Amino acid sequence: QVQLVESGGGLVQAGGSLRLSCAASRSIYSINTMGWYRQAPGTQRELVAAITSGGSTNYAYSVKGRFTISRDNAGNTLFLQMNSLRHEDTANYYCAARTIPGIGAMNYWGKGTLVTVSL
After folding, report:
1. Distance (Å, rounded) from C-alpha 38 to C-alpha 49?
2. Assign residue 42 a region: left if phi > 0, alpha if psi is -120 to 50, beta otherwise?
3. How confident is the model at residue 103 (pLDDT cuts 50, 70, 90)?
4. pLDDT tens digits along 39-53
């Protein structure tokens, strides 16, 4: 079992940057996959970026080249560096983890942190 707590959200102007953090309640070294998802009002939750225990990454097309996901296994923390933010990046951002081996849905979720990008 693992608890995930996001931080770092806030209000930023378009073109600005934010860094989201996700603190885990235990070591993330062995967690197969961790990721960031987001959900804007009236839309479905979507994958933003994911990273495996081996360091392989995957990004949504809309954030490629602007966002960077990373994990600090020693610090039990997942990060999302967001640059060149756009108004359409406004959403609640959720940290997630998959502790079950293999490919599949995330089985642990944080409560989210709100990112608001003003025009």
Report:
1. 10
2. left
3. confident
4. 999 999 999 999 998
